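Record 1 of the preview.
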Amino acid sequence: MLQGGNHIVFVFVSFICFVAIIFLLIIKSRKNEIRIENREIQLNHNDLTLEKIQLIWITNIGDYRIKRADLERMCTNNTIIMLSGYSKKRSKRYLEEDIQFLSTLAPTYYLWSSEDYKGNYRDLNALLLDCKVTILENTNALFETENGTKFSIIGLDDVGTNRDHIDYAIENINSENINILTSFTEVKNSLEKQYESIQVYLFERSQDHVNRNQKTIYLELNNEKGLLKQKTITFINFKVLL
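->
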């Protein structure tokens, strides 16, 4: 039988262990859950059909097991899917099931991350092409709303490994259109002349000590860090300010 101080120590240690177990269960539960976020971009424009455009931003697709029925229900005829990186883990084998499924729902585009280049990115490149996913690596894609407003999604290759080239990415870009820049990591300096035609900049991860301009709308899409970080799917819509 425990007596005196030994009993107090036993109770204290038991309590700490109990709290630790609960904390670990909460972390595991959060990591297994997918959080849905809704973000809105306000634009001064006269085309209300811009509000029908829906961007779905999914990061580290290799870590997900998507509930397909839910995502299929949320997609519309005006949905564009952006995949930002495959996985933070060095996967030995890339899985195509979710990528193939997403590409059947809507036009799907991919942005390289630094982690991708640590693995066998050539295999991932081949898988994405087989799944009819367009890789935005210093290139852009042009779209048009129901009322004829044109907008471009510009994708930079990985900033973290210095593969980004904004000059190539904005080739043939019309400054009169709505131009949306995307990358996994935010560029350090978007004050340069090449960024003057960018109205919106979407990125997965910001950097310290960045130089931003005042005309562009900046949106970091998954800024949680640490043990309580969750898998997140972000739905992005436009709000037209007439």
